[in-house]
Amino acid sequence: MDPRITVITLGVESLARARRFYCDGLGWPAAPTSNEHIVFIDAGGVVLALFSRSHLADDAQVKDAGPGFRGVTLAHNVGSRAEVDAALTAAVEAGAKLLKPAQEVFWGGYSGYFADPDGHAWEVAHNPFWQPRRAGCVVLSDG
């Protein structure tokens, strides 16, 4: 199997609330194929999908264990420390909860965390060893 991620689906309690947060609040455009049951957002080569949490659990044939940390975070990498601060501010203004204010981190970058209205944890980071491209794609560098 080739290492590839094509879709990340977030199970959400309220699709309308999630759409407001991601599309209206953060300004991420919903794809035309979105409808009243699912929202697709082009995330630069990966699709972020928003779907009912209970329906997602049913589809995967697992128990919906409710909110809480599941050992997964999503990351949004930007080109500077100022962009980290601006992105965290925009997320909080859109309804996110600030989990960790932006700060220098052990690996040599600068990052902070927010939780979307359903509790999904997002890191916003500036990694001086990566060069972000349009829509969050990165190029790893040697130094």
Your description of this structure?
With 143 residues, the protein is an alpha/beta fold. The protein is 22% helix and 34% strand. It has 3 helices and 9 strands. The chain has helices at 15-25, 53-60, 81-93, and strands spanning 7-12, 38-42, 47-52, 74-78, 97-104, 110-115, 121-126, 130-132, 138-140. The protein has a 4-stranded mixed β-sheet with strand order 4-7-6-5, covered by helices on one side. Strands 1-3-2 form a 3-stranded mixed β-sheet. The longest helix is centred in the middle third of the chain and has 13 residues, at 81-93. It is globular. The model is unreliable at 135-143 (pLDDT under 50).
At a glance:
This protein has a four-stranded mixed β-sheet with strand order 4-7-6-5, with helices on one face. It has helices at 15-25, 53-60, 81-93; strands at residues 7-12, 38-42, 47-52, 74-78, 97-104, 110-115, 121-126, 130-132, 138-140. The chain has 143 residues and is an alpha/beta fold.
State the main characteristics:
alpha/beta; three-stranded mixed β-sheet; 22% helix; disordered C terminus
Largest sheet: 4 strands, mixed
Placed side by side, the strands forming the largest sheet appear as: 4-7-6-5
Mass-distribution shape: globular
Number of strands: 9
Find the structural class using helix and strand composition.
Answer: alpha/beta
Distance between the termini: 30 Å
Write down the overall mean pLDDT. Answer: 89
What is the radius of gyration?
16 Å
| Residue fraction in strands | 25-35%
